[in-house]
Model the fold of this input.
Amino acid sequence: MTTLSAQNLHVHIGGKQVLDGVSLSLSRGQVTVIAGPNGAGKSTLLNCLAGLRAPDTGVVKLEEANLSVIPARRRAQRVGFLPQVPEIAWAVDVRTYVGLGRTPYIGGRGLAEPDRAAVESALEQTGTLVFADRVVTSLSGGERARVLIARALAGQPDWLLADEPFAGLDPGYQLDVAAMFGALAKRGVGVVVTVHDLQMAQRLADRVIVLHGGRVLADDAPAKALTPAILAQVYGIEARSIPGTSDPIIEIIGRTPNRSPSP
Amino acid sequence: MTAIRAHWLNLSLIALLAGLAALSLIAGRVWVPFEVWFGAGDDPRWLIIAELRLPRTLLGIAIGFALGMCGAALQGYTRNPLADPGVLGVAALAALGAVLTMFIGASAAAIWVLPAGAMIGAIGGVLILMLLAGATSSILTFILAGAILNTVASAGVALALSLAPNPWALNEIVNWLMGSLADRSTDDLQMAVPFIAVGCMLLAGTARALDALTMGETGARSLGINLGMTRLLLALGVGLATGAGVAATGVIGFVGLVTPHLMRPLTGSRPGAILIPSALAGAALVLGADIMVRIIPSPTEVKLGVAMAALGGPFFLALLINLRRRVA
Done:
């Protein structure tokens, strides 16, 4: 079985129940979108799935093994993670930054030949080879987004978990990044992405998991998970689905009248 | 940077260091020409080399190496180009630890008491720093925590001075505080070098983690880095190296701050790649400055710590102005 699964996750942060019994099982070769309003627990769930946060109760399993007992280095080789606010502390060049993705593989001697090959391949796949010698901090937001993905790909993970990778990108770059995720899933990588843009969720996802108040409200194909009823309950918006050229379009009409937050 | 270029850089720095070491043996109030080195035994000037200048030179190399490495490691860990054992108050706490042993008179009991006090102070300093800065490890909290440590440690030292039992103790403490390589013996060397070596080896072990921290703490953890272990290595490494250094020579500031900046244009900004070049450059800097204070004509020798501060102050200022320009 090539799955990443969570069983009955509970997480408390500062007296707030952020995850309240989340169970799910994800498959490789698919793009799974985690949707939900601000504070629904998307980032916390993603951190748990990446092994970066231990749930108060419940377990995360990578295939049959409990993620918390897999050595950190081994886990990092299999699960790639893109944080919501990526930090680039030093003005290193793009190739060096992407090379950091090989950290789980290298010993004290630095990058070996297979590591270099993986870095070049990641640069090529993301179209960042052309500015590989430039300094990361001098890049535009769109260029940088692709470098961040290249960094994750350099580690050749089986799973790529990305926390809001589309934030701050123009529509063109959003489509580029979405296309990269799609191509990865075709190659058998399990892609898990948190997304705010409903239209992007619709277009990108093979499967959408809607979180609300720390619980899974819907877990289905995009058209079945992002229904007007669910959107009204989760976001407090009135929306309808109308036919579009490729995917249905979610037209947002406005705030639900007399909206009362319903956790 | 390619491995070959890194190799050449290190070799050039070692060559520079060898040249400075030779000069350090020759230069001073009495200039000792090369011939004396090989005519050992008969010439009285040989004693100057063997008994005074050799330990002084070796100690200078060791201290500079330690400070350069500590500065590079702390800057890498805090992701802050202004970090260094002096700025963050680690050296001040080491000094406080050492001064306390002098103050209570314990330092006279055994040769290891004062160094132990300094190292305990330094390790405690790094641990307090990490505790104060907390999990956030934002640049600002770290520098503020350093400023607090510096203030408290300086106040402690001042208190010890004002309560000093006799003028002789006061004089001893003040002289030692100013930082100098003058009149150090092989005993000082034997006491400091093992701890500096162990400390630097621990720091070298953090290179991979420091590189990964370029992506921040979450990024580093997602790459499988054990940050708890990194912190432990760093606290022990910086504590031992800085503590042993301060115990042997007093406080010599700015070396750790300056050398990573001098090396970055040559090595690139990857923190792990700067550790060794910065350590070698630190050794060259301390040795060069120590030769300078010996040959500057003055009634009594200028203290090395004072000379470094005089050089480092303007550098620090230039760095701040440069940083502000980049941020603005």
In short: Chain A has one domain: 3-255. The mean pLDDT of chain A is 90. The CA atoms of residues 35 and 196 of chain A lie 6 Å apart. The two ends of chain A are 34 Å apart (CA to CA).
